[in-house]
Design a protein that fits this description.
Elements: E1 6-13, E2 16-23, H1 28-35, E3 54-57, E4 60-63, E5 76-78, H2 91-98, H3 108-123, H4 145-151, H5 162-173, E6 181-182, E7 189-190
Parallel strand pairs: 1-5
Antiparallel strand pairs: 1-2, 3-4, 3-5, 6-7
């Protein structure tokens, strides 16, 4: 019997089910962009080194160029097209706009998805390589610029908008439902740009 090299899969993307036949070697990135026309997720290096294709799988960050589409079946996939709540931007998206966390915009979808996943990891108490006190009882470390830079180090920006990206992520980390912002390290209210 000849083994099959393709399957019909159903992907749950941004809350919608998409059924499509795929070759088993098709990456999630190529399925999103080439098969489903979800082109917000960008193809950068296609080797998992730049972060331009970052999406969320079950709320955790994943580079879609290294994830096979067949392995994503049954998981909740969120792309940049699905992070907003209707017309209301996600706090990370809003902060990127307010603080110019983008230049050409090519890396921005991956930066935003990675930042959303990173903020979840931080809230859950996951340490980074620069976290000084990694004991669970210490709780999440202050989300300093150094912490943000380390936690987002897998996402490259070829325009070098890093200062604005770090500021935007810090702003989003301190976002409150009332629209005010609190600096995550100091607890001080910040003016909204």
């Amino acid at each position: 019997m000849v083994p099959t090299t393709s399957s019909v899969i159903t992907l749950d993307i941004n809350g919608e089910k998409h059924t499509l036949p795929v070759d088993h070697r098709t990456t999630l990135l190529d399925a999103l962009r080439e098969r489903l026309d979800l082109t917000g997720t960008k193809k950068g290096c296609d080797q998992g080194q730049c972060g331009a294709c970052t999406v969320l799988l079950d709320g955790r960050r994943s580079v879609a160029c290294l994830q096979l589409a067949v392995a994503a079946e049954g998981r909740e996939i969120t792309t940049i097209e699905g992070v907003a709540d209707g017309e209301r931007l996600h706090p990370v998206q809003q902060a990127f706009l307010e603080l110019d966390g983008f230049q050409c915009g090519y890396c921005t979808p991956g930066q935003i998805c990675s930042a959303i996943g990173m903020l979840g990891e931080h809230a859950a108490g996951w340490p980074s390589a620069v976290t000084e006190d990694v004991r669970p009882e210490a709780g999440p470390p202050a989300l300093t610029a150094e912490e943000i830079r380390e936690r987002l180090s897998g996402n490259l920006c070829r325009c070098a908008a890093y200062v604005s990206i770090v500021d935007a992520v810090a702003r989003a980390a301190g976002a409150r439902p009332d629209g005010k912002h609190v600096h995550p390290a100091t607890g001080a209210e910040e003016a909204v740009a």
